[in-house]
Amino acid sequence: MGRHVANSIFTEEHAALVAVVASARKAAGVSQRELAARLGRSQSHVCKIEARQRRIDTLEFYRIAKCLGVSPTAVFQEFVDHIETAPTAAGSSRSRLETERAAKTPVR
User: Fold this and answer.
1) Topology given in CATH for the domain delimited by 8-104
2) Structure pTM?
């Protein structure tokens, strides 16, 4: 059978994405209720995103950033920077990207 893949809302990466989006919302001085109104959604919709009970797809991420008046690219870069510099499970301070590159480097 196929490999079991964990639901993405339970991953460290998703937690980082939610944290970056929530941080951008707070930095913009926008409440969950106001963001929801701008998105044409309910406040509980935004609350579920920030509580990691609902996944953010690419288009929703884009719309959230635009509704906050911030660059989707800048917010996504902040997310990428966060996950690439997060400590690995073993506690290393080496970024995941560096770890991945090291694993691909041939040993001589």
Assistant:
1) 434 Repressor (Amino-terminal Domain) (1.10.260)
2) 0.73
